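Recap from last week: sequence in, structure out.
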Amino acid sequence: MSNDIVVSSRLPEWRRLWCNWRGLLTECETSLLQSMSWISNQEKRAPDFSSDRLPQLKDRLLALEADRKRLAQRIVASFEALMSTMSIIESRNAVSQGESISKLTELAFIFIPLSFATSFFGMEIKEWEVNKPRIGHFWGFASGLLLGAYFIRLAIRSTFIQGGLKKFKRAHMETWMAQSKLEAVAPASS
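Predicted structure tokens:
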């Protein structure tokens, strides 16, 4: 996780560097193209002068242009790799936040029923003045609510129940589709 923090903290600096490198490579391309154009003009103007040195210079400039293209491709590939790494880091963060929310939800299954029980027994109900409930009644009621809420939670998350619901839907989907087609056809024939 600490590497993720380092990557995230250095991202703006890397972006700035890549933007600078792209700008420098664009300037290099422009300079190389101008140099190639100048050499071509010199070859046309004075063919005698360009016998040995200008073709060598032209070859060297072509090699520099090939190196510049490879470097530009490496910069783009590095930038894409960094962006995919940042995407993975953000996905991990989202999963971590989801786990935190899940834990908070688990706590809610405990505290909401207890809060309701506390509110219920904290009310001033006239019928209770004669036979006031004791602390045991509160804990019994709170425990029942807590167990009921947790049972509902388990039932909702149960793979057995989820599988049963899917089977039920599949089994009855054809019937529902057939009924809806009949209902759609029936008014049209009237």
